[in-house]
Design goal:
- The structure is a single chain.
- With 650 residues, the chain is of the alpha/beta class.
- The chain has three domains: 5-247, P-loop containing nucleotide triphosphate hydrolases (Rossmann fold, 3-Layer(aba) Sandwich); 268-304 and 517-647, no CATH class; 322-504, no CATH class.
- It has 21 helices and 20 strands.
- The strands form three sheets. A six-stranded mixed β-sheet has the order 6-7-8-3-9-10, with helices on both faces. It has a six-stranded mixed β-barrel with strand order 12-13-18-15-17-16.
- A hairpin with a 2-residue loop joins strand 16 (426-429) and strand 17 (432-440).
- The longest helix is centred in the C-terminal third of the chain and has 44 residues, at 511-554.
- The protein is rod-shaped, with a radius of gyration of 43 Å.
């Protein structure tokens, strides 16, 4: 019968810089299906290195390894993982149980990487543990079990996927004599059931219980003695491999892998809550900063743009040129007739001349200082400022120099208390009586924090004659018909005024251009605020990477155990990237909630805030990407470890 395992001229050399140390020297060895072999040797003899090669935990430097007649000496890491998953089961001296998992979860590990359905593997793990007299210890963690119980859990794990070949490395070395005898009895029972058993030991007493004894010394086989003839087993290893295991689709298997990775991630993170909390804190601060600062920045931008919108983006503001101004007082350049001439130009909807000045109001025993604006009836249309009650000034008021006024909501609230209706009442403006004919709707704050509603509107003719004593106007606001032609209209107005005044003594401000400039400025401000917040998110990401690197170092042996039980490199990558993603996603969710709470608090304090889904999605996506990017390096480092090296880590 062809050997199950066949080693031909196997050598293994370890390198320490330029120093090469050959540990195994031309080892040739056949192990038959159903054999019970003990490999005995002193410390440093090379027996553990030989076991690592037999169990596909390490690759030989030279020579060939045939498993069922197939040379596997040069298979890649994932192919070797598949062989360990389907063929081998490991029983270690130090048990190598995952400390954060229960006995049941530890036994299930090999079947997770084999793609067994969750219900099936749970039932099989329970059955194995009950068979090994651990039915009352299913939910106990390793530190709650005795040494003998931990070793039985290790044996159950070795049998989980069938375990055609059981490799036991010093299985009794850490046990008392009675527990050691129990473990050897279990190994003999497993052999009787058809498993091929390979025991690595330095104990002659343990080795003598095997059917075949191979002694190794200084990296070479010293003797190979078969004490008991190879016999037909009650069950062959091919029958052991043919366990009834439900088949799953590739999609279902991938979803199961992701689900298990998430569960293992939460389990690992829960094992060190304080460190996890500190890692979460960095992500929470970063995400909440992004959400809060962008909400406040967007609110400030909206507030500024709303103020410009209230003035209209289809407006041109004509003013005297400051270069022509000398001395103090008003600049005598623009006159009402200029506005009339401008209205004759194509694409001009209306031209509104205005004169403003500070005035004192009196009603009853209340005196109040505000701003008076002397203008024309089209003011209401050009400024898009409707009335809350009453009427606006009309052409007849303009022609007859009528002493009428329309007041802003701030003036109305200040001068008329106890909900008194101001319409129809008389108000003294600079000691001159004006009848209130209307109240403007509330418009809110203006540029520089000014109150737009703190104003009194009077006819232009009345204001110039009775309040300001002049015939000139301070500004002319021009509303265009077509926004697309606003620049050409601006040039036409400038040419007209230059011709009328025989010189260029006016300047025109395009409100649409100012709006665009302000929009660009506020966008830059938002970008600046977002950059500051992103820096804190970056710091949080570096914290994630640092913690994951520490986790990889601390859990090196666990990584080795997972690889020994069939985990491929992508499985290890998936696990550690998932842990980083779980931390960053959880921190992102908490950070979003915290950031929205801070923004809400700022809004309650009177700061302009705009809540939108964009910054929230951006912040969470950034936290997710942070976990993916900064979790990749530690995950890659973990996946590159050799199983034998990882298992030997302290």
């Amino acid at each position: 019968m062809a050997p199950l395992i066949q080693l031909k001229d196997i050598t293994k050399t370890f390198y320490n810089g330029d120093l090469a140390v050959e540990v195994l020297h031309n080892i040739s060895l056949d192990i038959q299906e159903g054999d019970f072999v003990a490999i005995i040797g002193a410390s440093g003899s090379g027996k553990s290195t030989l076991m690592n090669i037999l169990g596909c935990l390490d690759n030989p430097t030279h020579g060939s390894y045939l498993l069922n007649g197939q040379d596997i000496s040069h298979l890649d890491a994932d192919d070797l993982a598949y062989l360990r998953q389907k063929t081998f089961g490991f029983v270690f001296q130090n048990y190598n149980l995952i400390p954060t998992s229960t006995a049941l979860d530890n036994v299930e590990v090999p079947s997770i990487y084999a793609g067994m359905p969750a219900q099936y593997r749970r039932e099989r793990a329970e059955e194995l543990l009950k068979t090994l007299r651990l039915g009352d210890r299913l939910d106990h963690k390793p530190n709650q079990l005795s040494g003998g119980q931990q070793q039985r859990v290790s044996i159950a794990r070795a049998l989980m996927n069938g375990g055609k070949v059981i490799l036991a490395d010093e299985p009794t070395g850490a046990l008392d004599s009675q527990s050691g005898e129990d473990v050897m009895h279990l190994l003999r029972d497993m052999h009787a059931q058809g498993h091929t058993i390979i025991v690595i030991t330095h104990s002659r007493e343990v080795a003598e219980q095997a059917d075949r004894l191979i002694e190794i010394r200084d990296g070479s086989i010293l003797s190979d003695i078969r004490k008991t003839p190879l016999r037909d087993q009650l069950k062959t290893t091919s029958e052991i491999a043919a366990m009834d295991m439900p088949e799953t689709s590739a999609l279902a298997s991938s979803l199961a892998d992701m689900g298990e990775a998430v569960k293992m991630a939460f389990r690992a993170l829960r094992a060190n809550l304080f460190r996890t909390a500190l890692t979460l804190l960095g992500i929470i601060i970063g995400v909440s900063s992004v959400v809060t600062l962008l909400a406040i920045g967007t609110g400030a931008q909206k507030n500024i743009l709303d103020q410009f919108s209230s003035m209209g983006s289809d407006l041109l503001l004509v003013r005297p040129a400051m270069a022509n101004f000398r001395g103090t007082g008003s600049i005598a350049t623009l006159i009402p007739e200029d506005a009339t001439a401008i209205e004759e130009l194509p694409n001009v909807k209306t031209a509104v001349p205005e004169v403003t000045g500070s005035v004192t109001l009196r009603y009853g025993n209340i005196d109040y200082q505000t701003t008076a604006n002397a203008t024309v009836p089209t003011f209401e249309i050009a400024k898009s400022w409707p009335l809350s009650e009453g009427d606006f000034i009309n052409d007849n008021d303009l022609k007859t120099y009528a002493p009428v006024a329309v007041i802003g909501s701030t003036v109305a609230k200040t001068m008329f208390v106890n909900n008194e209706d101001p319409v129809g009442k008389y108000l003294l403006i600079n000691k001159i009586p004006f009848q209130i004919i209307g109240v403007l709707q509330e418009k809110g704050g203006g540029m520089g924090g000014s109150d737009q509603d703190d104003v009194v509107i009077v006819p232009l003719t009345t204001g110039n004659l009775r309040l300001f004593g002049q015939k000139y106007v301070r500004t002319i606001t021009v509303q265009v018909k077509n926004d697309a032609l606003i620049n050409a209209t601006q040039d036409d107005i400038q040419s007209l005024l230059n011709q009328r005044h025989k010189r260029q003594d006016t300047m025109i401000t395009n409100m649409a251009s100012i709006r665009e400039a302000v929009n660009e400025t506020t966008n830059s401000l938002k970008l600046f605020l977002g950059s500051i917040a992103a820096i804190s998110l970056l710091v949080g990401g570096i914290g994630v990477m640092n913690i994951m690197l520490v986790s990889v170092t601390e859990r090196t042996r666990e990584i080795g155990v997972r690889m020994a039980t069939g985990a491929r490199r992508k499985d290890i990558m998936l696990q550690f990237i998932t842990e980083a993603l779980v931390v960053s996603s959880l921190g992102g969710l908490i950070g979003v909630v915290f950031g929205l709470s801070l923004a809400g608090l700022a809004q309650w304090a009177g700061i302009s805030v705009v809540f939108s889904t964009g910054p929230i999605i951006l912040a969470f996506a950034c936290s997710f990407a942070t976990g993916l990017i900064f979790g990749f390096l530690p995950a890659r480092k973990a996946s590159k470890l050799m199983p034998a090296v990882a298992l030997s880590a302290e």
